[in-house]
Amino acid sequence: MKHSLIDKLCCPFDKQDLKLKIFLQDTEGNINEGMLTCKYCKRYYPIVYGVPIMSPDEYRQPMLEAPILKRWESKLEGTPAEGFRLLE
User: Fold this and answer.
1) How many CA atoms lie within 13 A of 75 on its CB side?
2) Domain that includes residue 32, residue range
């Protein structure tokens, strides 16, 4: 995902701006792994292999996202995730 794409994305739930946290970039600056979060509804949207996963809640599968969140646990600074939302 190109860094400039973040300006064109919004939360699919409430249409608010998203905050980007980058975990892995390639040598050209493209984002390979990261997380988009909405500060209003607290939903998170992972970026995996450069693709932001922004499906509505009913189409997301917690079993598929659990290994990703586990791998990123240290980068999330102890913020737990539950039901596609980050808990404070």
Assistant:
1) 14
2) 3-86
